[in-house]
Amino acid sequence: RTEEQWRPFNRSRVYMADLESVLHYSLRVELAAHTLIRGQDLTALRKYISVLTKFFPGRPVVMNLLDYVNTRLQNHTDKEISYETFREWLDNTDQSADTALPEGVRWVGCQGSQPHLRRYPCGMWTLFHVLTVQAKSIGGTDPQEVLSAMRNYVHSFFGCRDCAEHFEIMARESLVEVNTFPAAVLWLWSRHNRVNNRVAGALSEDPNFPKVQWPSPEMCPTCHTVKENGEHRWIPEQVLPFLLSHFSSSSILTDYLE
Ligand code: FAD
């Protein structure tokens, strides 16, 4: 990469450009690998689009598009759908409806120091944290809705198959115990930290963005404490408000959007 291409950003903030890039990549690149979508994959796609329609804190044109695609999917009663048809809905350019999902990716907070580092998986985590936080603040009906949609999406479509397997094991282990919206936010945070712990030092780690147990004491001093025996302990009563604020729709920066 050249220096001009690097977009300066604040490491402790969330960017809408990353979230829109994830939508573009998952719906126009990752899904495109599936010529025909049916069975549990079709269910996963429906649930994914449905939670995005409900909880993605997007610009009006993007929300209009999600609404449009969601409606088409709900009305599609066939047992399968071709990616081609789905793509036509996605690229719907009906001017009167004022819908659009920007073409291409523009990573900001998820930029990596090499093209194969960070980017899409970073954006995916960010998207799912934002969705669990939105579900908590808007108030859905099912505290497991977002996590279960995420689990199904990852299982059916996430390109990193190793990641999908690991994630499925964690979900199978304890997702049923999530009974409240705050618990859903904290579940995803703690599982993400488990992944950080497992992949720290791996080849997939960007040396400029080392894997840490997150948020660091610099980002959230009150989230951490040390027990008498010197062991680190999280303070969930502090972590929760930190996450709700960090990933809240009003904290998302709109720099670098077209
Ligand atoms: P990421 O871990 O992608 O995090 C993105 C941003 O989220 C960080 O920059 C930080 O701002 C914030 N963040 C970090 N930790 C937390 C937290 N605990 N809670 C909330 N926010 C946080 N890679 C593997 O090698 N093996 C795997 O098994 C694997 N499983 C994955 C499963 C899923 C569902 C996903 C989406 C990705 C997985 N990956 C896995 C990829 C890996 O977790 C990283 O996404 C990738 O290495 C890029 O790392 P990153 O430095 O951009 O930070």
Automatic annotation (TrEMBL):
Indicate where this protein resides in the cell: Secreted
Question: Could you tell me the superkingdom of the organism this chain comes from?
Answer: Eukaryota
The chain positions of domain ERV/ALR sulfhydryl oxidase read 113-214
The UniProt similarity line reads: Belongs to the quiescin-sulfhydryl oxidase (QSOX) family.
What the protein does?
Catalyzes the oxidation of sulfhydryl groups in peptide and protein thiols to disulfides with the reduction of oxygen to hydrogen peroxide. Plays a role in disulfide bond formation in a variety of extracellular proteins. In fibroblasts, required for normal incorporation of laminin into the extracellular matrix, and thereby for normal cell-cell adhesion and cell migration.
From the Swiss-Prot or TrEMBL record, give the protein name.
Answer: Sulfhydryl oxidase
State the organism of origin. Eleginops maclovinus
Q: Which residues of the full protein are shown?
A: 289 to 546 of 787
